[in-house]
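Posting for a labmate who doesn't have an account.
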Amino acid sequence: ISEDYGGCGVGFEFSALIADIFYRRGVGAVAGGGIGVHSGIVAHYILNMGREAQKASYLPKMATGEYVGAIGMTEPGAGSDLKNIKTSAKKNDGGYLINGSKIFISNGQHCDIIILACKTDPAAGARGVSLFLVETDTKGFVRGSKLEKLGMHCQDTSELFFEDMFVPDEALLGPLNGGFIAMMQELPRERMLLAVGAQAACEGMLDITLEYVKERNAFGKRIADFQNTRFKLAELATKIRVQKAFVDQGILLLAEGKLDAATASMAKLHTTELQGVVADECLQLFGGYGYMTEYRIAREYADARAQRIYGGTSEIMKEIISRELIK
């Protein structure tokens, strides 16, 4: 958030640093699903697309934490297929009536404002999607229950409902029917943020595993002294270090405004897939203790699984990359 609206005026590098700190310490859900959604995604949408009145109204409150932001894209019947969302916004006197539901919404239980993707022209496909800024105390906004997840327990995920919820014309964020294009433009930033987090998680898991195998003994020697352990760690360390160079390049490209969708997708695909591998291999070196939830590596294992799903599944990342290659 820029200084004009009460923020620090820093760039993406600062968001990347915050993500790195949290993911590296095993609480990535705070940065990826909580702070990241609030300041790295929602605030960025408003800053880039909002009218001056919208920026002045919401960004200062988001900067202080008075308002928590969320973004509502995913629906029970539409995950990666955003052009086929069903939540509708029908023109009504002086505004729109919104009906529908969203699911798997980060910050859903405590958000004060949400960017909502709605169909404003059902016959137009991707060209019929618009974004709205909705305050959650609006009549017709209903919070569902907090969803119970496999991992990422330090961050809330919710289902949200909209029942004849009226929003004024001023709630429209960006151009009418321009929401899909806006989401496609913003998603590379979100995916790069997830890639940064996945990289930091890999480094953090390797660190705690190195510490553990140096202390744990079996068959009269340290776990670290077995050749299999050393070779596994050598392989992981090499993959993680090589990957870091690509992630750092992506951060610089984004900061310079040069990051394209395919490169961001490559970063998310590779880092989150490796995060799953690192979690599995490191947990194995912890043995039975690694399966106990009191151990951080067990929580990392569960948390890592979601990384290949939200923000665009691994399969969608491959589609984006391959389209760029063969166009």
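Reply:
Got it, the structure tokens are right above this. The chain has two domains: 3-177, 181-326.
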